[in-house]
């Protein structure tokens, strides 16, 4: 049986391979005119059974209204509203038993009068939680309650989700995506992926973790869907709680990675979600001991356990490092993937603003500062461990489904931990250092280099690559501390990383010994306030790699760091007139992470011979 | 249960689900008109299912399965309904409904949800729709849009000379010189930008000032360089090339969204109205205010 599967996969790779290289080279007429658009590609509503179990009745309609900036009702008769609305949103409900709890809670459903149905119809938070608990226990013992496998219900709810996405799509103003979450958990390791379609027409019924918990089999399904003319990608998330499985150096069957695995992976999963409410997955202090910013919004307990997950295999930077190492050793890179951010909120509302945080678990669970103060998570974690994060940013021609999806496809994307920071980056061989001072810098960047997400190929002609980068603060947010370039490379079968501070809010902060004076904090914890008296509104730099080795496959990505601001927990504490929770820092430095540019030595496998 | 499993496997037939729901909604209003004990037809020991009752059951079935039931399935629905009726009457006879918090809450929730569903499928008259459209005019409008060129003067780059530089740049632009200004993260020419997008991209203060300039420019044919207008990053010289105020979408164009919004609003209003009506049938007797105060925290 396994032999058959392998053959089938090989055939599919053969079919998908050439197309992937062709599509990576799409040229758009005026890419310099691309603008940045911000959105959330990961949000749950009442049709996710766990969100329903959290007593959240918000529908996708509410989710889209909130993202567009409309006020929506919350617990206690109040209303919540985003200060800065989003440009796009994908509702991504858990596809397993999609919406079944919502449905059995409605009178008229065949299971409405069952024990689970009675519990599901309750508006009481504890009763709802009990219903969900019963369901999870049943799943663990392999006894799916009768009636839960309900294709008719799945179809009804899926149609409703897709129709709602369509109804809220306003090309040019607000983009929606049809999507869902494939929720595979393997021995407590989170292997979850969001599946995002480029269309809402003739969509298939979701392939779920009950169909298979192997990502390779999800890819096979995605590949089959593309045969009908649509495009679809899967975006892994919460690698931080995957127990080392998300970026493991074997496939999910335990087989070694090879070139066809790499080709399939990068085409089916061109991106990874690097930050969200359950932690940031960029890197970990144990992996990056020399990175002073590595210790950011970590979330290390495997979900609903008190087990600390395996670090190696769980973080994105390490995967990028392993990718260039495999590139050097074996000629393929399974982790040539860009980044996005998402909230993963289960409240039906994308809460991203620290100073306007309205909870991530549903209005009745954590909709008020009082509720957020009381609640405990599993394994002794306080509710305060959750982050008000993250956001996807794309460089796209216009705010349409086609344009944004194309940007995701070519990895011209980055993630932020909430603020709408603008950052743009190009890498090339012939970029003059003063180009960042030219109003035509983007045009020059596209003409003489590749943007974030791209691949820069040798020959290096005895030169080192130059990166040009600029960043602007969120128009209603905090100033910027610095721009960093994170480089990773592989030489002699070993991978290395190094961080360069390429732009500082004040050049005088660079000390004689090369260390950097901290930007300083203006935060007043008691009143949860800060000022923009430190930091810079804009930063820009041109940087040529001083230690470039033309033989070493490498990647470069940009990290933009904001000045310190109060964390959402500090705003809550100020509202309640109490001290902030001790388990979390009172301030944080929000940030943006770009998709890398990869350097591929001339003649390396995977380079494309020019005619 | 075998029949239900069969349904799961059977292909979905096209079924006029919306029609069925309206039907169900009409029928569901019926029990409310019956007296408190319900079931006016038939005595204490008689269970009567009328044709209308069956239609309701079939409609519910249809809303779930998107088709009519087979004869076997209908028999099963009827059998289940009779069993339910018998158990309910026996339970009432035993007084199980009194003093049971769970049953009380379940009954009230069930009625509330039913009311909600009724409203969700109602069909308003054209006049009602038009009135709703008029009352919510701001929802059915094309946003205000502006096209403009801008040249940026960076505060980070120019520091204290920002304003002076902006003024000299303005002079050059007005003289027809091609002065690009400092590099900026947004394009120098922006077309048909909505007021909302402008606010998100440039910040609220810049957006408000530019829209004001645009309205004024439209009044005097516009097209000249003005400014500087301040943004979170520095100062901008701007030239408005086109401006379109908010445009109301005609009713015929907006009809589908009006209907969806009407149903949404109507569902909420109807539930609240019906609760109000039902509530009005009762005289509420509560303990004196002092006794209530003793039960609460200030």
Summarize the structure.
The complex is a heterodimer of chains A (611) and B (298). Chain A contains 15 helices and 26 strands. Chain A has 611 residues and is of the alpha+beta class.
Please tally the β strands of chain B and state the result.
6
Briefly note the structural class of the backbone of chain A: alpha+beta
Unreliable runs of chain A: 1-28
Oligomer: heterodimer
* Count of DSSP-assigned helices of chain A: 15
Average predicted confidence as pLDDT of chain A: 90
Give the fraction of residues assigned to helices of chain B: 55-70%
Helical content of chain A, roughly? 25-40%
Distance between the termini of chain A: 42 Å
Poorly predicted segments of chain B: 1-43
Strand content of chain A: 15-25%
- As a whole number of angstroms, the C-alpha radius of gyration of chain A is 23 Å
Keywords:
A: alpha+beta, 13-stranded mixed β-sheet, four-stranded antiparallel β-sheet, 26 strands, 25% helix, globular, disordered N terminus, B: 298 residues, alpha+beta, two-stranded antiparallel ribbon, 56% helix
Q: In words, what does this structure look like?
A:
The complex is a heterodimer of chains A (611) and B (298). Chain A is of the alpha+beta class and 611 residues long. Chain A is built from 15 helices and 26 strands. In chain A, the strands form six sheets. In chain A, strands 1, 4, 5, 8, 9, 13, 14, 17, 19, 20, 22, 25 and 26 form a 13-stranded mixed sheet that branches. In chain A, 55% of the residues are buried. Residues 1-28 of chain A have low confidence and may be disordered. By secondary structure, chain B is an alpha+beta fold. Chain B contains 13 helices and six strands. Chain B has helices spanning 2-9, 17-28, 30-33, 51-65, 71-93, 101-120, 126-135, 155-158, 162-174, 195-202, 204-219, 251-280, 289-293; strands at residues 141-142, 145-154, 189-194, 226-231, 234-244, 247-248. In chain B, the strands form two sheets. In chain B, strands 3-2-5-4 form a four-stranded antiparallel sheet. In chain B, helix 6 (101-120) runs antiparallel to helix 12 (251-280) and helix 7 (126-135) crosses helix 12. Residues 1-43 of chain B have low confidence and may be disordered. Chains A and B meet through strand 1, helix 7 and strand 21 of A and helix 1, helix 4, helix 6, helix 8 and helix 10 of B.
């Amino acid at each position: 049986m396994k032999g058959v599967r392998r053959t089938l996969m090989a055939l599919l790779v053969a079919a998908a391979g050439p197309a992937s290289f062709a599509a990576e080279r799409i040229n758009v007429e005026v890419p310099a005119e691309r603008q940045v658009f911000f959105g959330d590609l990961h949000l749950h509503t009442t049709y996710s059974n766990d969100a329903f179990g959290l007593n959240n009745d918000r529908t996708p309609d509410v989710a889209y209204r909130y993202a567009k900036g409309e006020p929506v009702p919350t617990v206690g008769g109040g209303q919540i509203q985003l200060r800065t609305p989003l440009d796009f949103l994908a509702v991504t409900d858990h596809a397993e038993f999609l919406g079944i709890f919502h449905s059995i809670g409605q009178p008229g459903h065949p299971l409405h009068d069952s024990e689970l149905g009675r519990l599901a119809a309750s508006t009481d938070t504890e009763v709802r939680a009990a219903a969900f608990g019963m369901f999870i226990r049943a799943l663990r013992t392999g006894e799916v309650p009768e009636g839960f496998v309900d294709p008719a219900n799945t179809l009804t709810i899926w149609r409703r989700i897709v129709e709602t996405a369509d109804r809220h799509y306003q090309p040019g103003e607000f983009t929606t995506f049809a999507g869902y979450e494939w929720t595979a958990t393997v021995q407590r390791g989170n292997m979850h992926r969001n599946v995002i379609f480029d269309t809402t027409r003739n969509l298939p019924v979701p392939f779920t973790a009950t169909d298979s918990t192997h990502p390779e089999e999800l890819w096979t399904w995605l590949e089959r869907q593309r045969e009908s003319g649509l495009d679809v990608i899967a975006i892994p998330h919460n690698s931080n709680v995957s127990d080392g499985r998300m970026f493991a150096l074997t496939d999910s069957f335990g087989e070694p990675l090879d070139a066809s695995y790499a080709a399939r992976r990068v085409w089916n999963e061109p991106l990874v979600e690097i930050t969200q409410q359950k932690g940031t997955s960029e890197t970990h202090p144990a992996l990056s001991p020399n990175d002073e910013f590595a210790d950011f919004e970590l979330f290390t307990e495997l979900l609903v356990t008190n087990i600390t997950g395996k670090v190696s295999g769980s973080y994105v930077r390490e995967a990028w490092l392993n990718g260039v190492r495999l590139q050097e050793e074996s000629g393929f890179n399974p982790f040539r993937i860009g980044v996005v951010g998402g909230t993963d909120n289960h409240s039906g509302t994308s809460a991203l603003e620290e100073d306007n945080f309205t909870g991530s678990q549903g209005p009745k669970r954590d909709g008020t500062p009082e509720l957020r103060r009381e609640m405990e998570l599993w394994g002794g974690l306080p509710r305060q461990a959750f982050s008000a994060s993250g956001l996807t940013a794309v460089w796209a021609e216009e705010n349409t489904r086609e344009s944004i999806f194309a940007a995701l496809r070519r990895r011209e994307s980055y993630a932020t931990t909430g603020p709408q920071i603008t950052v743009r980056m190009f890498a090339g061989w012939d970029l003059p250092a003063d180009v960042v001072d030219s109003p035509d810098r983007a045009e020059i960047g596209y003409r003489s280099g590749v943007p974030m997400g791209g691949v820069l190929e040798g020959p290096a002609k005895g030169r080192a690559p130059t990166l040009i980068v600029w960043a602007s603060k969120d128009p209603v947010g905090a100033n910027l501390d610095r721009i960093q370039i994170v480089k990773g490379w592989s030489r002699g079968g070993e991978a290395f990383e190094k961080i360069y501070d390429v732009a500082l809010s004040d050049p005088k902060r660079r000390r004689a010994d090369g260390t950097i004076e901290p930007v300083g904090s203006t935060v007043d914890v008691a009143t949860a306030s800060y000022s923009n008296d430190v930091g810079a509104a804009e930063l820009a730099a041109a940087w040529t790699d001083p230690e470039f080795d033309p033989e070493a496959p490498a990647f470069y990505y940009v990290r933009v760091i904001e000045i310190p601001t109060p964390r959402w927990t500090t705003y809550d504490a100020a509202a309640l007139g109490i001290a902030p929770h001790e388990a979390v820092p009172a301030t944080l430095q929000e940030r943006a992470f770009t998709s890398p540019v990869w350097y591929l030595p001339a003649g390396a496998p995977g380079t494309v011979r020019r005619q | 249960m075998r029949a239900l499993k069969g349904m799961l496997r059977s292909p979905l037939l096209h079924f006029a689900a919306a029609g069925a729901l309206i039907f169900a909604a009409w029928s569901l209003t019926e029990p409310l008109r019956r007296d408190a004990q319900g079931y006016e037809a038939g005595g204490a020991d008689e269970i009567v299912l009328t044709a209308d009752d069956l239609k309701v059951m079939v409609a519910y079935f249809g809303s779930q399965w998107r088709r009519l039931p087979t004869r076997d399935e209908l028999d099963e629905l009827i059998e289940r309904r009779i069993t339910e009726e018998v158990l309910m009457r026996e339970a009432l006879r035993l007084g199980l409904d009194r003093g049971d918090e769970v049953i009380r809450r379940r009954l009230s929730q069930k009625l509330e949800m039913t009311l909600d569903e009724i409203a969700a499928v109602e069909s308003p008259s054209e006049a009602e729709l038009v009135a709703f459209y008029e009352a919510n005019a701001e929802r059915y409008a094309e946003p205000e849009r502006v096209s403009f060129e801008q040249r940026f003067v960076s505060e980070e780059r120019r520091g204290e000379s920002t304003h002076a530089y902006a003024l000299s740049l303005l002079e050059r632009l007005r003289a027809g010189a091609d002065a690009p200004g400092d590099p900026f993260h947004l394009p120098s020419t922006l077309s048909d930008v909505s007021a909302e997008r402008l606010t998100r991209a440039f910040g609220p203060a810049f957006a408000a000032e530019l829209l004001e300039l645009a309205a004024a420019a439209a009044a005097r044919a516009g097209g000249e360089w003005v400014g500087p207008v301040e943004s979170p990053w520095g100062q901008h010289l701007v030239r408005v090339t086109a401006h379109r105020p908010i445009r109301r979408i005609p009713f015929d164009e907006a009809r589908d969204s009006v209907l969806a919004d009407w149903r949404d609003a109507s569902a909420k209003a109807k539930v609240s109205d019906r609760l109000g009506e039902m509530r009005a049938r009762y005289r509420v007797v509560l303990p004196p205010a002092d006794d209530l105060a003793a039960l609460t925290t200030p």
